[in-house]
């Protein structure tokens, strides 16, 4: 077999192993709003806000970039607390909802639609803090794109700036606990949620099934699940010189059975 043929087969296998861009479908269509991140609750601060600000040691007036901000569940409270905030997301549907909530709350902030793999060129060393919360880090098919996200974050941070990366899955925990079956509340219907990890590729797949108005529906959600050492290595490669890992926003110790991971990195 020639070297070119081996290279072609390797590329094809890598593509087959890579997760489908399910986020593009699920977060662009309000049909799937039951899996969307939480919306901003008027006249209230999410309890996570104070914990995140404590971890980051953020001072009032600092500049924040909220990547994949969704419906603005943290973006808007940050602005109301006196921070200079930019909400950044690729979903038109989510940004529309976030803008409406911000207007109702009289919150002054900037909303930008874009791909976090390629942040605006003029943002270099602009932000004191970048947050990526409830994130599906690992959602891109090409692993180099996931690394590129971290490189872009490092570029737009000022020297000494901090990055909070909240990842919703931990491959160690998925291996420990095995396949799972849950039930989600879709409002007028319930959704069967079955999750399984492919050990060789590291891809975690959730299959959702539900009945609505007499019709059976099914869709999938996929992400490449990383281990804590893998994420730390990727952060270092992106140019972050210090990082810590926690189980949650409260700063509890990260363990193998932690369902998610919160990383704090400094440029």
UniProtKB/TrEMBL annotation:
All copies of domain Methyltransferase, residue ranges? 65-161
- List keywords of the entry alphabetically: Methyltransferase, Transferase
The record's listing under InterPro entries reads:
Methyltransf_25, SAM-dependent_MTases_sf
Gene Ontology annotations of biological process type? methylation
Q: Which GO terms describe its molecular function?
A: methyltransferase activity
Q: Check the record and name the Pfam families matching this protein.
A: Methyltransf_25
Protein name in the entry: Class I SAM-dependent methyltransferase
Q: Which organism is it from?
A: Caldilineaceae bacterium SB0664_bin_27
């Amino acid at each position: 077999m020639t070297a070119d043929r081996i290279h072609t087969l390797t590329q094809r296998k890598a593509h087959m192993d890579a997760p489908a861009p399910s986020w593009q479908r699920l977060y662009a269509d309000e049909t799937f709003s039951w899996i969307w991140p939480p919306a901003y609750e008027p006249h209230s601060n999410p309890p996570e806000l104070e914990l995140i600000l404590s971890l980051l040691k953020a001072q009032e007036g600092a500049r924040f970039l909220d990547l994949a901000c969704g419906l603005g569940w943290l973006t808007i409270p940050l602005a109301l607390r006196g921070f200079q905030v930019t909400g950044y997301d690729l979903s038109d549907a989510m940004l529309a909802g976030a803008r409406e909530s911000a207007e109702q709350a009289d919150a002054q902030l900037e909303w930008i639609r874009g791909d976090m793999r390629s942040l605006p060129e003029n943002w270099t060393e602009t932000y004191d803090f970048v947050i990526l919360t409830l994130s599906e880090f690992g959602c891109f098919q090409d692993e180099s794109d996931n690394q590129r996200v971290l490189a872009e974050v490092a570029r737009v941070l000022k020297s000494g700036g901090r990055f909070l990366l909240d990842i919703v899955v931990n491959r160690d925990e998925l291996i420990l606990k095995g396949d799972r079956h849950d039930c989600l509340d879709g409002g007028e219907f319930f959704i069967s949620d079955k999750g399984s990890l492919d050990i060789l590729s590291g891809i975690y797949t959730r299959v959702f099934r539900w009945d609505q108005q007499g019709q059976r529906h099914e869709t999938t959600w996929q992400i490449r699940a990383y281990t804590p050492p893998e994420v730390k290595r990727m952060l270092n490669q992106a140019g972050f010189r210090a990082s810590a890992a926690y189980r949650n926003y409260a700063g509890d110790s990260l363990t193998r059975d932690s369902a998610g991971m919160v990383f704090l990195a400094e440029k």
